[in-house]
Write a structure and sequence with these properties.
Blueprint (H helix, E strand, L loop, with lengths): L3 H29 L8 H6 L5 E2 L2 E2 H22 L4 H25 L5 H21 L2
Antiparallel strand pairs: 1-2
Length: 136
């Protein structure tokens, strides 16, 4: 029977899939439907300053982040060695971004975007799963 570290890595992968699904939905909504829902909370988040990182919206970079995390996990399965240091570094870089965008959404814009909350929740689930993995 697999040990608990195996289950925590499965939880990281599941949270990454959950976040990838939410980030792809946000990216599609931002790219295609940005002019259709003018009064929605998501549109207020998308049209605010600071959502763009260089020329890309944050949702596109979230898709890239989740793809990288899943690539690290899947390549580790086939190589029989998962690079935990890379996973920890990726998740540690995502946590300040999660905090910044959650602060901006709740306290600056005073809106609730369910898609954004989903991505933030996925980042928190991944960080707690990796925290459990590192401290067992």
């Amino acid at each position: 029977m697999p040990d608990s570290s195996f289950f925590s890595l499965i939880a990281v992968g599941g949270a990454a899939l959950f976040g990838l699904h939410g980030a792809v939905g946000l990216a599609i909504k931002h790219h295609i439907h940005r002019n259709n829902y003018l009064n929605s909370a998501c549109n207020r988040v998308f049209s605010s300053k600071g959502i763009y990182i260089s020329i890309f919206p944050a949702a596109f970079l979230a898709v890239l982040f989740y793809c990288i995390v899943l690539f690290i996990l899947i390549s580790g399965i086939y190589q029989n060695k998962i690079h935990i240091l890379l996973l920890n570094a990726a998740i540690l870089m995502a946590l300040p971004a999660t905090g910044y965008y959650a602060f901006k959404m709740f306290f600056r814009l005073r809106v609730i975007c369910i898609g954004c909350i989903r991505v933030h929740l996925a980042n928190l689930m991944m960080s707690f799963a990796m925290l459990f993995y590192n401290f067992q």
